[in-house]
Specification:
Elements lengths: L13 E2 L11 H22 L1 H8 L11 H28 L2 H6 L2 H12 L4 H29 L5 H5 L1 H17 L4 H10 L1 H8 L6 H6 L3 H12 L6 H17 L4 H6 L1 H18 L3 H6 L1 H7 L6 H26 L1 H27 L10 H15 L4 H9 L5 H53 L8 H9 L14 E2 L3
Parallel strand pairs: 1-2
Helix pairs in contact: 1-6, 1-8, 1-10, 3-6, 3-22, 5-6, 5-9, 5-10, 6-21, 6-22, 8-18, 15-21, 15-22, 18-19, 18-20, 19-20, 19-22
């Protein structure tokens, strides 16, 4: 028997369901997620372009101008550098122009950048096009997760929030497949066509309600929230929660954006986001992808080099969709655990294989091992550490500093990308390829401890609840935004 004491004027709701109610995900939210995800597909295509394109670009029978090894390396390397600049620029843009307008502003420059490359008569035109494309990639990689984090319901934010990563992998796969049949110029013209549906769909979706509230435009915020949640939805409780969270942030804000970032309460979520970005890139993903062909060759494979990249794209694509299905069922931390453990095991395995091979041991009987380890590594990365740092960046950063903090996190990510890509050859030269894999595996072990100790679980929580918990604010009983029925399990 359960005895409950309560005041006579207290209203208590009882519910004894075995399962949690399933959130109703409106078509409007799916359309919003799909629209911004098409932008991510353009980002994925841009990131993958040099892998299939450089081969034909260096062929003087196809290209009218000379592309040396040095200039060819800059065709690939200039994009993460420009992405770093885009990450820095994107923070102020999403605060002043809005999340939607910032994303929309990348579409036309994307088209121009691809036309510059496709019509290039000199390597300088290619470099300018790649730099402009990289600038847009940096801005988009920052603004897409922020937009989705602020518009999608908590119950489906993980699933819909991973759509940009899934579509980004579609862009990579499309580039790899098309690169088997098109030269660098044809591939660039295909890239110029991709932003057009993205540009058209972005006009159909609203700005985020939280940005409208930050600009004291509550009526516009209400209309945007009503569009996202459906005509019959009661959006007032959620709107009050957003407004209250914004007022709390305003009360705790200083006059300087930089001081806000260094504020103790804000510093914690920022450092967590930076940590996730650090361990994402220092897992060695770009170095391992760079080593794809050598790994296949070491396995004794006779598969065509371009077909190898297509296999990588397919594995990456499938794994991300698996993560999309699992993330709102298992949560962020569980997928990060699975991802990290898979990467640790495979990196240590790859290191051991190459150590034995470099020491002259007969590894012919386990020639299949590098290929298997590589596939598991890509699956593990795509399940967790690939998409989740970007998703959580849009979730855990407080609303008041979301733009500037996301800018810092994105710029830091691109800096790590550039450093790992540019130093990999030097690392392998000094400690061997086996030492490089062991080093990345050791960093992943530290990353696992970081996730266990510092990373919060955000599954099913509203952005306001996450912000209160991260910043240590006491939840007041007067807040009606997050009151739920009491549940008693008999």
């Amino acid at each position: 028997m359960v005895k409950i004491l309560m005041r006579a004027d207290t209203h208590v709701s009882f519910s004894v369901p075995i399962e949690e109610p399933v959130a109703k995900c409106t078509f409007s939210q799916v359309l919003a997620a799909l629209s911004v995800s098409l932008g991510s597909m353009v980002v994925g295509f841009s990131s993958a372009y040099t892998s299939p394109a450089l081969v034909s670009m260096k062929d003087r029978n196809i290209t009218s101008f000379e592309v040396t090894d040095q200039s060819g390396s800059w065709v690939g390397g200039i994009m993460p550098l420009a992405g770093l600049a885009g990450g820095i620029l994107g923070g102020p843009m999403i605060e002043y122009l809005g999340r939607k307008n910032t994303i929309l502003a990348t579409a036309t420059p994307f088209i121009i950048s691809w036309l510059l490359i496709g019509c290039a008569t000199h390597v300088a035109m290619v470099l300018v096009g790649r730099a402009l494309s990289g600038l847009c990639v940096g801005i988009a990689s920052l603004s897409l997760p922020v937009y989705l984090g602020e518009t999608v319901q908590p119950e489906v934010r993980g699933t819909l929030g991973l759509l940009p990563t899934a579509f980004g992998n579609i862009g990579i796969l499309l580039c790899f497949v098309a690169g088997k049949y098109l030269d660098w110029s044809g591939l660039a013209f295909l890239g110029a066509a991709l932003p057009i549906p993205f540009l058209l769909l972005m006009f159909l979706i609203p700005e985020t309600p939280r940005w409208y509230v930050s600009r004291n435009r509550e009526d516009r915020a209400r209309k945007a929230l009503q569009w996202l949640r459906g005509r019959k939805a009661d959006v007032e409780p959620e709107l009050k929660g957003i407004s209250k969270s914004h007022q709390d942030a305003e009360r705790h804000a200083s006059s300087s954006a930089m001081l806000d970032l260094l504020n103790k309460a804000n510093l914690k979520p920022l450092l967590i986001s930076l940590g996730l970005m650090f361990f994402q890139q220092l897992s060695g993903i770009n170095a391992v992808i760079f080593y794809t062909v050598q790994i296949f060759q070491s396995a004794g494979s006779t598969i065509d080099e371009k077909l190898c990249t297509i296999i990588v794209g397919v594995v990456n694509f499938i794994a991300t969709f698996i993560a999309t299905v699992l993330i709102d069922r298992l949560g962020r931390k569980i997928l990060l655990y699975i991802s990290d453990v898979a990467m640790i095991i495979t990196l240590m395995t790859l290191g051991t294989f190459f150590y034995m091979k470099n020491n002259g041991d007969d590894v012919s009987e386990i020639g299949w091992l590098p290929l298997a380890a590589f596939v598991v590594f890509v699956v593990g990365f795509s399940l967790g550490f690939g998409p989740i740092p970007w998703l959580m960046m849009g979730e855990i950063l407080p609303g008041k500093i979301r733009g500037s903090a996301a800018s810092v996190a994105t710029a830091f990510n691109w800096s790590c990308t550039f450093v790992v890509t540019k130093t990999f050859a030097d690392i392998t030269a000094s400690i061997g390829n086996h030492g490089a894999f062991w080093m990345f595996g050791s960093i992943c072990i530290v990353g696992l401890l970081f996730v266990i100790v510092y990373v919060p679980e955000t599954q099913g929580k509203s952005l306001e609840d996450i912000e209160r918990k991260m910043m240590g604010r006491v939840r007041r009983m007067s807040s009606v935004a997050n009151i739920k029925p009491l549940s008693f399990n008999m």
